[in-house]
Amino acid sequence: MTVKIFIKLAFRNILRNKRRTLIAGTAIGIGLACLIFADAYMLGMEKNMIRSATASFLGEGQIHHAGFRETLEVEKTIVGLDEITERLEQEPSVEQFAQRILTMSMISSPANVQSATMVGVDPSSEVYLSQIDEALIEGEYFQGDSPRDILIGFKLAEILEVELGDRVVLTAAQAHSGDLAQELFRISGIFRFHVNEMDRGMVFIRLPKAQEMLALDRSVHEIAIKFNDPGIGRDRSDSIWAAYSSDENEAVGWVELLPQMEAVFELSKFSMVVMGLIIFAVVALGIINTLFMSLYERMYEFGVLRAIGTRPFNLGRLVVFEACALALISIALGLVIGSVVSYIFTIRGWDLTGIEFSGVTFREPLYAIMRLEQYIIYPIWVFIITTLISLYPATFAAKLTPAKAMRKSF
Amino acid sequence: MVDSKIQDVVVTEALVKEYSDNGVPVLAVRGINLRIQRGEFTAIVGPSGSGKTTFLNLISGLDTATSGKIWLNGKLLIDMSGRELSDFRRDNIGFIFQAYNLIPVLTVEENIEYIMLLQGIGKSERRERVNAVLSRVGLEGMAGRLPTKLSGGQQQRVAVARAIVSNPSLVLADEPTANLDSKSANDLLDMMKTLNEDGGMTFLFSTHDKKIMDKARRLIVLRDGQIESDEIR
Amino acid sequence: MVKIAFRNIFRQKRRTILTVLTMLGGFALCAVSYGWSDGTYNNIIDLFTRNQIGHIQIHREGYLDRPSLYKTIKDTARLEDLLHRQPGVEAWSPRVFSAGLASAGDKTTGARILGVDIARESAMIRLDDKVTEGRLPSDESHEALVGEGLVKTLGADLGDTVVVVSQGADGSIANDLYTIVGTVSSGDKFLDQVSLYLTLAEAQELLVLQGRIHELAITCDDLHQVDRIAAEISGAVNNPDLAVATWKEVASSFYQAMMADKEGNWIMLFIIVLLVAVGVLNTVLMSVLERVREYGLLRAIGTSPIGIFKLVTTEVVFMALIGIALGCVVAFITNSILSVHGLSLTTPFTYGGIEFKEMNAEINARSFYIPAIAVFFSAFLVSIFPAVKAARTPPARAMRMN
Lengths: 410, 233, 402
Description:
The complex is a heterotrimer of chains A (410), B (233) and C (402). Chain A is of the alpha+beta class. Chain A contains 16 helices and 12 strands. The longest helix of chain C is centred in the N-terminal third of the chain and has 41 residues, at 13-53. In chain C, helix 2 (13-53) crosses helix 13 (305-340) and helix 13 runs antiparallel to helix 14.
């Protein structure tokens, strides 16, 4: 019953000095907005990087011969391929998969010679998994059926000084014999992924041609997989990895293929927490200052309140309520600022294209991602912290003897 | 002391208060023994610095004594905790200060009913008593006004209303007329005298004002923290 | 006026302390943030320039953008002579590059062939320290130093023969055998997967380069002088066919990434300074409003409005100076500690293509003077509004307000 009067008093007191409340509220609001926005930014960055890594070429998961990834040995092909592909066809969580050949090779033109990773792909299944077709800036994506089609990165084309239609020679080592195979190809397409390693160091040819060139029969080195649920690639403990791994093969999600990315997400979260603490420390000082200032100018009044019978505890509680009222106003401001700024950046993103971070290159602008939790969890934290901080001035107010309070002023 | 518990509203014994003013120790009250009885209309006078305000603060628990004992309605102040003291003041003492009595963000009605809210009294009873006490001080119809919209005299009358609304046994008034013009001061005094005579409330003033001194039935003169004279007229 | 300002600050102790703390906190935060960022980046830059690419590189014009076997530097001797006389240059090393295939036994894989002057390369980037097994190739011999990753892929050992196939500058197939005499760990794992070092002479012979080179890598004494030295070298070289590039152009993806990150730092500085300004505004406004009577008195006894203005701003300036001074101490201690005990990453990450294994702070001038200027000026600017308000109160009205 008695609580109501203090809540009423608290709100009216906060609104007494509108300018000061507004200034303090804006400061806290900005702090909150920073948190909300930083969260939206980080979510956007994660999503962007994961997409950039997996959708362009890597896929969300891959199956290889155990040990293939370290050395790219041409003989280390997937064991029991037919059985695996059959199972993958039936697997409910798998949306798409594509088979590939990968090997180190030398590519030469009349003008130059470079090393490149030669990737043999099955165009029809690959088109659903990776973005090679979308990355093409010239030429066509494996139209017709010429086995001598080759797609090369634009940077590689520049270095080799070749254009669409020109001929290049690929040299690679064959399986088991180690003999060098050399084959002529005609450039049927040029792509640009904006990822340096790909634009400069990768070429795509047809899978059967690659198998023939490397004397691999029908074996493949890699199966890239896209899942229905994007969370699987990130979850090391998902059952699917164990299901397709064995003594000879390994199945891993992107989280294992790109360990530094996950590490960097952790690091970013950590630095977000640090930044949050820092911003709050600075804001907290402002809150204390504001609360004390409003306290000091009402010392006499507090003395009167105590004189006529207000308990010390209730006076302290009044100060806490005022801080809560301030918090609520600030939260309202912060939510507005945070949502507006976040929204702007969901429309207009940052263009970080070309910048590499933890093994992944940004290929699309980074957009912020707004999420409901940001607007619930962070405000709650602000409220809690403001209330906690107010305990300092609150205990100060409660401990005052009425006479002292009335003496302290004017 | 013990046997006159029922009659005495305030009893002090060897009351001393020392505080430090920027490092200089000041003895504001040096050993006061005093008894105020129920129904008195008493004025405590003296030059500035004689300790009047300090004395009133001590006997109401607004300040803590350096040494000595104080009984209010027979209860020893030292025995009471901060909370008990607050509650005691709420239920038994009414205050009228020289100025700034009222909470500026509360209306007249809200200011007066504040104490009753602390006491947990219900809405209809509160409203009844507020209206009753407003008519007693001659401010019917002002319930909804904010203190900033009242004159000095009106503000003091609201202060009186708030002080008496819970029928306290003691009303302490520290220079209540100092900021008023003589007409308002006189009206205020007459009102308080009536309340004293009708309701039997004990009034204790600290003042410079001759008008109050003239109307008081007991005059205590303080000098340098001690009682110089104590006369009953 | 100054005296009054100074004493006024100590009147309201708690408020002053909190305000000073706000400025201290804001300053220290920014200073530490710059120290950390600058320290980490400067460390990294120092690492990869002194470990691999050097500070400055000279190439045939266009080589950096589109490397080609055929884009070579002919008058190496003249350039070396020039560098010998250029002040600020610490060391240099001529290099030759090509792509090829390396086979050992029945394993073949892609290789990056690096031809280096062993003595100069050791002096400049301490190639000798990077040898993990065996030794450096000696001149006049068919010896190769192989990257750790490459030797593993080839399944080869010291003493084994490696066949190198590439393309010669005359169009022929370049083809030769070498003995693996050592393995090397350069610090760049991706390079070690494919690197095969030959002596400069051997590489030039293999690739039919006839004494030409692809790159002249140079290190300088002082990282901060690099731009100037590069400009001087470029002037001295005076050849439109040759391009002199600093590490910023050579590692442009890293440099761009670093610049993007530093922009983020500016934004954080802005926000923190904004918060500090708000805190100061509140305090100063409050203090001005409550001392209206005092200002009225001062005006009545003849102080001009400008005098009042100066009084208010001087108080803020004092608090700012104290806050910044104390903040300097705090930041200095913090950055000193963080420069010794930085962050060691268990899973290093790459940014802009460069690997970050350790992060440390450093003590430098700009991490102190930039926040100092920012905090000082924002506090000063923010105090103008209340100061003007105070200066404007006319004497009579001020006195009446009780």
